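tool=predict chain=A
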Amino acid sequence: MSEYYKPVSRPRKKLKMPLFGNMGSGSSKSTISGESVWGSKNFSTMIFIMGALALIAQFYLPNLMSEKVYSDYDELKELSLEGTIRKKFTDASNPNEIHYILLVKQKDGTRRKLDLYKADSLFFDQVAVPQRLFKKSGEMNVRVVRFSKADTTLTLMVKE
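tool=predict ok
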């Protein structure tokens, strides 16, 4: 019997991740100056740092990205509106406290979030999403531009 001849195959190339290159692979290629490639030896510390940054971002970003909610009588009286209603919804998670919320996009691009919890729900029932609101600072009268009817002036009544 003749001996079994096993053909010699070339070693396969190491797999590389698209963004991280050689991180985590066994080879340590060197640059021209002889230093190791960034991140090839300290992969676990880089993962730890990225995880810590993600946890810190989850803690601080919601506070930075939150919108101011206008709900008190003084805030609503001093608020000036000139924009369109983009969203209209209620938050009835607690049946004893129903929050009527309007999101108004101002003419300059900013958004105002009105919580009419302490206000009369009649105003909330009479406005709709595509309508425009105009309100001067110091007044509680809101002019509503409607498409099917003439402009209407509604009074925003707030319970104190």
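The chain has two domains: 20-66, 69-155. Helices lie at 43-65, 73-78, 121-126.
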